[in-house]
Amino acid sequence: MNRIILSRKGFDSSAGGAASPILNNKDIFSIPIPWKYKTNQRYKDVIIQKKHASELLKITKTKVTPESYCHLDPDLSKDRGLFGQHNAAQTELCNAGVGVGDLFLFFGWFKNYYEKIDMHHIFGWLQVGKILVGDESIKKFLAKKGFSHPHGQFQKNEQSKNNTLYIGSNDLIINDDRYSKMGYGFFSKSRKDLILTENGKSRSHWKLPTKYFGNAEHLFINRLSWLDSEKCTLQCKGQGQEYILDVKKNKRVKDWAINLILNEHSS
Questions:
Q1: Does residue 97 register a pLDDT over 90?
Q2: What is the C-alpha to C-alpha distance for residues 243 and 6, in angstroms, rounded to an integer?
């Protein structure tokens, strides 16, 4: 693994107009963004970690309705593990050398609507097992598997030359070590170690654990930089999607990511 990508996905202020919900029992659900084009999925048809998306929409009080089409991506259900990217964001991933074996950690805007606390929170992971580039190869793969995915359903005016589908590995394998976890999945519960936002700050102000990030060497490839390198604080600026970390020489940052995944279901 050479790269860890903090990938912003799900409902936000412009797509959905609300935060994805954290329930009082700490269950966490990332609501996929609405899509202006027809897809094979409406919110009324989508189940997110055993809960109907229609129920989750009610919690957020968004204007998005159960009849609206949605862009279900990433899809981290047990039988698939798929994430699509294209246009400028995919060019950014490609230029940074993101490839097989690298790890996406998906985060988004979440809120406990009962306590009125919102934050940036990691909700899922995908280790890249295979990469498909181009509409034809993506559609062929999805048809063979019997899967539905929005990056295989683009309209003619949406198609891009760099349409790319990342397929999750079956097992989590880091530096030839095989772990007893799938290479992709959702985090089911909110946990402190999955919260990026610094306590008491606005959601874009992050604090990363000094145990893993202290003295990290040339870590940030794009977008991010330390506000205070000793305290490991930074600000997630703008509406960028992909925040890429160079972890080839930063073993402790790899350990951070691995422990996040290994701690799933242990809280």
A1: yes
A2: 5
